[in-house]
Amino acid sequence: MYTLNKCLAESCQNGALTVFDENGTITEKDGYCIDHIPDPQKAQQDVYQYINTHDKIVGLNACGIIFSDIDLTNKRFYGCNFQHCQFSNLHSEGFRSRMSMFDFAVFKDCNWLKSNMQFTSFAGCTFTHTLFTGSDMIHNNFCGIAAYQSSFDDSDLYNSRFVRAKLIDTSFRNCNIKRTIFYDLEQKNVSFKMSNTREAIFSLDETELAGGKNIPESCAL
């Protein structure tokens, strides 16, 4: 997992970005967050360079970095932090993620086709014109997301959570949504055509919620 170093700026409680040594290798040294780092453009370029030169990325903390017009095809990320990042015009296929954090990130005009993401969190993210088509996204957290004109079609969403999500003009066609929680949705023009909706959880009465009935342990709130 990424290091939990705090920003060196006085009174700042944000996590520090990954610090690289002179050879471009990830270190565990203390550093600054994106708001206080002396040269944010260089910090962004260092992250870009590391990703471009590695197919397997472990423990990268890129919180708050802006990613635009890059290709993450076949990249593998393990225990990385992309919270509060901005992704635009991102094109990737075969992207892989394990136990990484994308909480409160913003995605616009992004393609994550045929990706494989497990135990990954997208809580509070905003997706606009974003495609996850044909992906395996098992045991993931999509709670509180806002998705506009986006697609999860032909994907495996087994045991994932979309609690209190806002879904507008978004589709889940031909998806495996067994044990997937869609509780307390705000939705408009959402399609679940050809998905196994009888295996998903769309509503829970107060008794079931309090007692945890029908809720997989990994999805309990």
What does this protein structure show overall?
- With 221 residues, this protein is mainly beta.
- The chain contains 2 helices and 15 strands.
- The longest helix is centred in the first third of the chain and has 13 residues.
- The two termini are 23 Å apart.
Q: What's the overall geometry? A: elongated
* SSE run: EEHEEEEEEEEEEEEEH
The portion of residues assigned to helices is under 10%
Distance between the termini: 23 Å
Helix/strand class: mainly beta
Radius of gyration: 18 Å
**What share of residues are in beta strands?**
15-25%
- Average pLDDT confidence is 91
Instruction: List how many beta strands DSSP finds.
Output: 15
Q: Helix segment count?
A: 2
Q: Outline the low-pLDDT stretches.
A: 206-221
Main sheet summary: 8 strands, parallel
Relevant terms:
single chain, 221 residues, mainly beta, 8-stranded parallel β-sheet, 5-stranded parallel β-sheet, 15 strands, 9% helix, elongated, disordered C terminus
